[in-house]
Design brief:
single chain; about 100 residues; alpha+beta; Ubiquitin-like (UB roll); five-stranded mixed β-sheet; globular
């Protein structure tokens, strides 16, 4: 399955992943510039991404912990999510996202 990531320099990357991974794990394992300091525990906001609007209704809804972490993040938008909280599913094959500024 593919995810399409735009990095902070505007470069586009097409990454491969499987349904046992979160978006954060796929981005991190591809050595893109994502800190993911807490390792996916929803305890920081260093895996903050912007999900392309056409994909928002296909991803799981945000829980209170994620919302709380995003409240502490910079440059938050309506499409902001923590990539560690989004599991790759068959419905997300081809999802497009952008890494948020550090």
């Amino acid at each position: 399955m593919k995810i399409k990531v735009t990095d902070r320099d505007g470069n586009k990357h097409e990454l491969e992943g499987d349904t046992s991974s979160t978006l954060m794990e796929i981005i991190r394992d591809a050595s893109l510039d994502i800190e993911a300091a807490c390792g996916g525990c929803c305890a920081c906001a260093t895996c903050h991404v912007y999900i392309d609007k056409k994909w928002l209704n296909k991803i799981n809804t945000m829980d209170d912990d994620e919302e709380s972490m995003l409240d502490q993040a910079f440059d938050v938008k309506d499409t902001s999510r923590l990539s560690c909280q989004i599991n790759l599913t068959e419905d997300l094959d081809g999802i497009e996202l952008e890494l948020a500024p550090e």
